[in-house]
Amino acid sequence: MNAVILKKGRESSLYRNHPWVFSGAIQELKGNPVSGETVDVLSFKNEFLAKGSYSPKSQMTVRVLSFDKNEIIDENFFYQKIKSAKMKKELLMDEFSNSYRVIFGESDGLPGLIIDKYNHVLVCQFLSAGAEYWKEIIVQQLINIFNPVCIYERSDADVRKKEGLGLIKQSLYGELKNEVIEILENGCKYFVDVINGHKTGFYLDQKVNRALVGNYAENKNILNCFSYTGGFSITALNNGAVSVTNIDSSSNALKLLLKNCELNNISSGKIINVQGNVFNILREYVNEGKKFDVIILDPPKLVESAGQLTKGARAYKDLNMTAFKLLNENGILFTFSCSGLLSAELFQKIVFDASADAKINAQIIGRMSQSPDHGVSLNFPEAWYLKGLVCRV
User: Fold this and answer.
1) How many Å apart are CA 140 and CA 239, to the nearest integer?
2) Residue-wise pLDDT tens digits, 321-332
3) Which end of the chain has fewer CB atoms < 10 Å from its terminal CB, N or C?
4) Residue 150 three-state SS
5) For 318, which DSSP code?
6) Domains with residue ranges and CATH for the chain
């Protein structure tokens, strides 16, 4: 068996079942494993610690698949992991939704692998050398377990470059019958563009938060920033919102938002779509004296690395400060950060500083996170990335 031997004293994280081994922790490589192949991870004293996928071009050299010395990494291993995840995720589902995250990487025991189910279509991201190595077998197990209409690959995330992998978009099984897929979530209908949309096409991690917005929507005028294809907007309008103003930089996303309105029999007269830079448009709204009852801030990741933390924190503060100025008395702000490197404590401090600079008194009336199908394993806290606050002026 190929193996990596750790430097003395570098095994403590593996004793806590953390699934990453970085290159700086490795003393020696035994054998000649190819990229993605399974290797044993041994301590300085040659004690077995784990087995995982080898990635020679990444700083994260081994991603652990098992801490059991006797477990065999083969077709049955992946079948059981996927089948178990499917069973657990379906326990979270109800009759009003037909889409969920099947595999959430390390949290479901399959590092570097993302699988989302959109109705009868599966969309996969193979983001690590190990996931790429086992791709053909993983796809076969998905066919066996789900019998999907189509399996589509969206391995076009830049993180693959760190693994020495190219960017890929392709059908792996079957064909997409339409340009977009119709899904059901919380009783709302959405078209999802799995080929050209963000990530795998839709933000399933916001499911419970979209439902929460619906609770505050009745008779309200709402501003949805970074609206994408209108996930929050459709929920709000289906729950009695008077109007929703959507801001997004993508004209294609806003076009699909309008189609989602038609799909839900929502009058276009209740929708105002604005294409442009959210930061600039919010400042213009402040100068114009515009006000809203509810504002949703769900920006893309503003902190990509530790070196961007200060710059990203300033951007979050600017965004929230401007939003506070646009809220009516008793107005509600739903504000999110999907930057994993930004802690919940720091995010709350940023939102407080934004309210202080806006000269607004506000209180936190709710806290939000990613939906349960994006569960966080206790041995892998890095999986918790989405945090949000519900603030009332």
Assistant:
1) 41
2) 999 999 999 999
3) N
4) strand
5) H
6) 3-66 (2.30.130.10), 75-174 (3.30.750.80), 203-392 (3.40.50.150)
